[in-house]
Amino acid sequence: QVQLVESGGGLVQAGGSLRLSCVASGRTFSNYAMGWFRQAPGKEREFVAAISWSSTYYADSVKGRFTISRDNAKNTVYLQMNSLKPEDTAVYYCAQKRSGAPAFRPDGMDYWGKGTLVTVSS
Questions:
Q1: What percent of the chain clears pLDDT 70, i.e. is strictly above it?
Q2: 81 near 119, Cβ under 8 Å?
Q3: Cβ(5)–Cβ(112) under 8 Å?
Q4: pLDDT digits over 54-86, tens only?
């Protein structure tokens, strides 16, 4: 059984930074693509960033501000978020793909954490 547990969310002022973490358990972490998605109030869940064995991918809205990385020894994927904006406010979810390349749509990922709330004040 795959379990994903996010942490690191909180309240930050615009222009600030946060680092989210997602610890995975249940199978060999290094074999699988990971992603971060977010869902703002009243909006659909959207792609933020993803990482495979050798590549990273970003939504245009976060490119240059957010960085996804992974530490396979710790079964952890990170999302470093800099220059945060009020429109980044959302619940951030970690997700894992069962096999193959990461998906950029929520319905393409297979396992999900429960999310961590990020609030950016203006």
A1: 100
A2: no
A3: no
A4: 899 999 999 999 999 999 999 999 999 999 999
